[in-house]
Amino acid sequence: MRFSEAVTIDAAVTWLPEPSGSSAARAAELLVPQPPSALDMAVSAARDALTLAGVEGVEIDLLMHNSLSRHGDDSRCPAHDVACRIGAIAAVPLGIQQGCHSGTMALYSAAIQLVTDPAVETVLVTTADAHAPADSGGGTSGHAAHHDGAAAAVLSSSGSGLRLVAQVVHATADGDASADAGPDAVRKVLTQALAEAGLAAGDPRIRQVALPRLGAPTLESVYLPVVRETLTGTPRPVPARTGHLGCGDTLACLADITDQRLLDPGEFALVLTGDGGFTWSCLVVQQPERGEGSHR
Fold it and tell me: Rounded mean pLDDT of 77-85?
């Protein structure tokens, strides 16, 4: 779906718990022995994102929280708890259950709400996961090196952040797990997203490509061959600064793009992701030209 120029990502942040030990250990430590709860991490990420966007909790119209982790009391809705903790008293809280694709699907749903519902002007998306030690996957040589942490993004219809130009979502039939299903799905969302954004495969304005934070074998077998054969330009990969954040990889990629100022005005980044469900997405974001966008 191509979105109007008004849909912007006004802030995106990654929040990681403080590891223990020496600086060398911290550099390699992805799982914290006793991390904060997923709810606490989500609240911390949400507060950081709101501060960065210059938005108060009471201004949030829709809050979408996503997690693979249990939040304690199963009788309570985690999204409601996040909303209460950050003062989002006017927000409609909800969650999406779509595995590791949940945070990405929340971005898609948020953008649709912003372009179709005049009452929705500001949306907060949060993710948080605290993984069991057995999830570490043996580092980047496995399917994924899981990382405890949270991410959050503020989207609006009147901001001046990254433009969400287009996002394509595709689900493989009957959860097809064949060897070709993943690359075929990546190819489909990538080519369709380029078309909806009005970009040619070799457009020099495509400067960055972000991939999910999975192990090298998965990236080499599913994502990278398709990227290399489809994009005829020379976009640079967005360097991943964390392991796999569960639902939060896409939000973390957006945070890295903005934090590191990887795009000049007018340039584009592509963000690819998928989950084991199997659902796949490609987002196209653009750094606005100078002077574009309205400020709060």
Answer: 93
